[in-house]
């Protein structure tokens, strides 16, 4: 089970690196994000690649849930508990986010680009649910990676393993704050097409 989880993690990690790079490049502006995404989509929206990534996510979720249940059943140490908790939230986010994206793409025939997310984050009412929803997903990803780094070095370089865990969580907290401040329009003026706001059935913030 753990071996299968690690193999599928390689495909998921490659996709997430590209996906997060897109968001950090986007800090230069939504147009830059869109331009980068247009190139990235040529890779991850290829039918074969998309199917492999989705399958890898499915394997990650199923094997990860089994491993998390084992951690909770055996009442393992704090870092394992943290890894299980962060992994569980990542799985929840992956399922709901992918379902939303496919709903928008297939049924509403709207391009599921960054404007779709920003419109929700800047929308009155929705923002109070979506900021923690997306923010926790980013933070949980860094926490999970920190736990993995801890696990890799804990037997040979235990002080280093703790340092990597703390540093990764710290970077994750800063990255989460940075992205949420930007995508809610607090650090730059964001211009989103009106049709994206219309997808959210609440009054837009002024």
UniProtKB/TrEMBL annotation:
One cellular-component annotation, GO: membrane
Keyword vocabulary terms for this entry: Membrane, Transmembrane, Transmembrane helix
Annotated TM spans: 51-68, 89-108, 128-150, 162-183
Chain coiled-coil ranges: none
Protein name, UniProt field: Putative membrane protein
Natural source organism: Asticcacaulis excentricus
InterPro entries cross-referenced by the UniProt entry: SQR/QFR_C/D
């Amino acid at each position: 089970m753990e071996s299968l989880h690690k193999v599928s993690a390689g495909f998921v990690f490659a996709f997430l690196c590209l996906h997060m790079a897109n968001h950090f490049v986007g800090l230069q502006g939504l147009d830059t994000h869109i331009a980068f995404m247009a190139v990235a989509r040529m890779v991850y929206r290829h039918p074969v690649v998309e199917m492999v990534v989705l399958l890898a996510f499915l394997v990650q979720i199923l094997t990860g849930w089994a491993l998390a249940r084992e951690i909770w059943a055996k009442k393992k140490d704090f870092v394992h508990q943290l890894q299980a908790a962060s992994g569980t939230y990542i799985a929840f986010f992956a399922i709901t986010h992918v379902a939303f994206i496919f709903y928008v793409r297939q049924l509403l025939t709207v391009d599921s680009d960054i404007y779709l997310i920003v419109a929700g984050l800047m929308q009155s009412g929705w923002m109070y649910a979506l900021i923690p929803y997306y923010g926790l997903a980013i933070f949980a990803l860094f926490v999970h990676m920190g736990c993995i780094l801890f696990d890799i070095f804990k037997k040979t370089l235990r002080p280093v393993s703790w340092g990597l865990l703390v540093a990764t969580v710290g970077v994750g907290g800063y990255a989460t704050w940075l992205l949420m401040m930007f995508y809610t329009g607090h650090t730059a003026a964001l211009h989103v097409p009106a049709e994206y706001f219309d997808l959210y059935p609440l009054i837009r913030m002024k």
